[in-house]
Design a protein that fits this description.
By secondary structure, this protein is an alpha+beta fold. It is 18% helix and 32% strand. It has a 5-stranded mixed sheet. It has a two-stranded antiparallel sheet with strand order 1-7. The longest helix is centred in the C-terminal third of the chain and has 12 residues, at 179-190.
Length: 191
């Protein structure tokens, strides 16, 4: 097993020609460090506050390179209840297959099978993780981000953040969608 470790690797593009020319079962491993400034360039839908730190492992299997990425980062999000900004940790676990575009020994293009959904390594034997990492971060973001699980949110009347203050607004206790059923409950109590 061949293993190369680089710390503070800022690029998400890996030349895998050496791995492709080696025996099946060969591996390469790298430490990943992607600074906040580079993470922010991946997508405008998130604002990174901590760098991505993790590992990537490539395994040359039967005609493809299995790629395993694991790491953590953090982004700023807005709470869906109280609208406060908070730091959301992101845990990334990726396992994806990449197919070569060119046969290393002959230089001829390799056409993928129609049923193969593996990603492609470019004709220069560069395996690019940029888009894969971007999509994985977006998929790891919660649909309804919460600053904390018991966030009280905002008062619907005055807009006060109920995590920090109490307001004097009179809130209707019954959800209007259940109002018709409340009548039956009151009738039942009278009998």
């Amino acid at each position: 097993m061949v293993s190369n470790h680089q710390s503070h690797l800022e690029s998400l593009q890996f030349n895998v020609a050496g791995l492709l020319s080696g025996p099946k079962g060969g591996t390469r491993s790298y430490d990943l460090y992607i600074p906040v400034s580079e993470l922010d360039q991946l997508d405008e839908n998130f604002d990174a506050v901590k760098p991505f730190e993790g590992t990537v492992r490539f395994l040359w299997t039967n005609e493809r390179i299995m790629t395993i990425v694991s790491g953590v980062a953090a982004v700023t999000m807005q709470c869906s209840r109280c609208l406060e900004l908070f730091e959301q940790p992101i845990h990334i676990e990726i396992e994806e297959a990449f197919l070569p575009s060119v046969d290393l020994s002959t230089g001829k293009a390799i056409e993928p099978e129609e049923t193969d959904d593996a990603l492609r390594i470019d004709k220069h034997h560069i395996l690019d993780l940029t888009e894969l990492l971007r999509q994985s971060i977006l998929l790891a973001l919660p649909l309804t981000p919460l600053c904390k699980s018991d966030c009280a949110g905002l008062c619907p009347e005055c807009g006060a953040n109920l995590n920090y203050e109490r307001c004097t607004c009179q809130h209707e206790e019954t959800d209007p969608r259940w109002a018709a059923l409340k009548i039956f409950l009151q009738e039942d109590k009278q009998h």
